[in-house]
Specification:
Layout (H helix, E strand, L loop, with lengths): L3 E6 L4 E8 L2 E9 L11 H23 L8 E7 L3 H18 L3 E5 H7 L12 E6 L4 E8 L2 E7 L5 H11 L7 H8 L21 H17 L3 H32 L3 E5 L6 H14 L2 E3 L10 H13 L17
Parallel strand pairs: 1-4, 4-5, 6-9, 9-10
Antiparallel strand pairs: 1-2, 2-3, 6-7, 7-8
Helix pairs in contact: 1-2, 3-9, 4-6, 4-7, 5-7, 6-7, 7-8
Bound molecules: 5'-O-[(R)-(carboxyoxy)(hydroxy)phosphoryl]adenosine and zinc ion.
Zinc ion binds next to helix 3.
Length: 333
């Protein structure tokens, strides 16, 4: 029997805990913090305080749901970075104390690697080497995944993340945070009538600051002509913005697949929950003969199940952390 591990995720605005046994996620609990909705973005200090309130009940509940006693744990994993320093500190302090008390190994997980390893929670699992488009609120990357623990970023955004482009544009439309899922919802009811420019960035890199500005000016000009422009055209505006962002993502992914001649293609991270991206990926896969891997919704946005999956492979590789390790808000891999 493989290891039984507890994993904790606290990098941003979700407090989550999961139990994995022999590579199988037995339970995964996510407490989402609604406190940020009124602020148009995550407020770091409020996130840390909410993690502090949530962490004990969330860990207690996942142990209970999985029917695992803490004495049965072989190790404890947590998100070491990237993320918000204060939020990471809450998770790190909690797991260090618990690992010390139980005298079991501590496993420091990279959040972005974990988003990719979410693909190994259930079948079908991608075959190595594969490409993963990792799209979240803080990152936009194309990653060449050579094995569970050997990954290389081959393209990334030079400014904003695509999730930020969704959220900030949604804010301009007067929608609450996080706006990405709402853009998705309205886009389903509209048509991509308006176009926005792609950015010229070399190689496999992305840039989303141009489209954000173009969107701002577009709304400003349209509102001058008709001050009810947003409310009258919300669905078409959302569909147009979403279409443009998806095209930007897929054009780079296509380029990467051609360049490396890899047809095993996965997506990961919060934005991979986007229904437009999921269906556009399916059509592209059909045209290009790709085998595509799209995570289940619960494993797209931040969750400890993916941290637990990464921890499983790190445990097998004996990749343990010492108790004096500090969180790393800008952690790379
Ligand atoms: O991976 P994640 O939960 O947290 C980070 O690590 O950042 O990603 C959160 C991001 C937010 O920007 C959110 O708006 C976006 O994922 N997101 C979506 C959808 N669901 C979540 N964006 C577009 N469409 C969605 N359905
Ligand atoms: Zn994430």
């Amino acid at each position: 029997m493989g290891p039984t591990l507890l994993a904790v995720e606290s990098s941003c605005d979700e407090t989550s805990a999961a139990i994995i046994q022999d590579g199988k996620v037995l339970n995964n609990i996510v407490a989402t913090q609604s406190v940020h909705e009124n602020y148009g973005g995550v407020v770091p200090e409020l996130a840390s305080r909410a993690h502090q309130q949530n962490i004990v009940p969330v860990v207690t509940e996942t142990l209970k749901n999985a029917d695992i006693d803490k004495s049965e744990l072989n190790g404890i994993a947590y998100t070491q970075g990237p993320g918000l320093l204060g939020a990471l500190l809450v998770g790190a302090s909690f797991v260090k104390a618990m690992a010390y008390a139980l005298n079991i190994p501590l496993i420091a997980v990279n959040h972005m690697q974990a988003h990719i390893l979410a693909h190994f929670i259930d079948d079908p699992r991608p075959k190595f080497p594969f490409l993963c488009l990792t799209v979240s609120g803080g990152h936009t990357q194309i990653v060449l995944v050579k094995s569970h623990l050997d990954m290389e970023v081959i393209g990334q955004t030079i400014d904003d993340a695509v999730g930020e482009a969704f959220d900030k544009s949604a804010k301009l439309l007067g929608l609450p945070y996080p706006g990405g899922p709402l853009i998705d919802k309205y886009a389903k009811l509209g048509k991509p009538k308006y176009s926005f420019p792609d950015s010229e960035v070399p190689g496999l890199n992305f840039s989303f600051s141009g489209i954000k500005t173009a969107f701002l000016y577009f709304l400003r000009d349209q509102l001058k002509l008709d001050d009810a422009f947003i409310s009258e055209n919300l669905n078409d505006i959302a569909a147009s913005l979403q279409h443009a962002l998806i095209q930007m993502l897929l054009s780079r992914l296509n380029k990467a697949s051609e360049k490396l001649n890899i047809k095993e293609i996965a997506i990961a991270g919060g934005v991979s929950a986007n229904s437009g991206l999921r269906s556009a990926l399916q059509s592209t896969a059909h045209e290009n003969n790709w085998n595509i891997y799209i995570p289940e919704f619960q494993y797209c946005t931040d969750n400890a199940g993916m941290i637990a999956m990464a921890a499983h492979y790190q445990y097998l590789a004996k990749d343990f952390a010492s108790l004096d390790i500090s969180p790393n808000p800008r952690m790379k891999f």
